[in-house]
Amino acid sequence: MSVINVCFVAHSAYGEMAGGRSGEIGGIQRQQSLMARWLARRGHRVTMLTHDEGQPAEQLIAGVRMLKLHRKSAGLPGLRFFHPRWTALLSGLARADAQVYYHNNAEYITGQVALWCRTNHRPFVFSTAHDWDCEPALVHLPSWRERRLYTYGLKNADRVISQTATQARLLREGFGLSSTVIAMPCPLSGLPPVAFEQRAVPPRVLWVGRIVENKRLEMLLDIAEQAPDLRFDVAGTPEVGSSYGASVLVRAERLSNVTVHGRVARERMPSLYRAALCLCCTATLEGFPNTFLEAWSEGTPIVSTFDPDGLIVSRGLGSAGHTVPELLAGIRRLSDSGDAWRLASHNSRLHFAGTHDPEIVMPQFERVFAEAQAGRVFET
User: Entry's Gene3D superfamilies (predicted)?
Assistant: First the structure.
């Protein structure tokens, strides 16, 4: 395979690339960092554009050339959309001088990158990060400008990658677009599996995520109130100034069987997954949560309101439910039966190894980037 010269447009990924102790850390940022590092190890030329978080203008991290753009808060309200945000992005795209550009997650930047690529005869690869990205209503994009730019970028991408068959169907139905379905990669911790008998006693239920309204942490707290014999760990923080986040945390702190850990360093997360009876997801809608991959990699079943492509139920990876009683019943099935837990744990590790191991997934991304790069004649 020829060397791929790819630029990741990943504004919020610097913290994850730098070690995960600062900046915005989440599933998207972890994916971007993992992918960039893997491609660099394979000998490809990888550049990443990120926000200015006080780092040098240009530096090399794990073989990835890092170029900084602007501070997230820079510029005057109303004007900063154009300067420094758009002007810095245009400058960064040109400095990267890549032969293929990649962006993940629906936002106005998708359209800006696609427009630059179209103008400069460079291929653009876009991948979805959420089911919302695939539905024309685009309810998560608040303004007409954001929706218009994202739609332009999506429709002008040379290749579109979706996370699930459901997302591929939504893109076909809503936008008339075909996409390549590629599962998300996640590394194994390398630690041996933890048996049912070695998990924490009393059983601990883990919840991981940003504390925002659509994640519905209050549902977990309802479960905790009805299950005083179980323990619940919450790993995550609210958005700054969020009244919802403040109120739900006050409630959590009043429950003696709930521990709020706040922001947890990446290297500490495996210990939480490995101690847990299960991971509980209470979100209204997701893409393909990185937390699911991390849990399955440790043999930790999932009890969830969201079941991507019906995998949890069809492959016996835990259980799915829509209400607090249904979620609690799923948790009880795992806590009350060692055999049920062992089967779900075994299935989880088996599914992860065959579907999400980076050495299985990343060659598929590599192939898409190579095909996109080879499919255009570049003018430099």
Answer: Glycogen Phosphorylase B (3.40.50.2000)
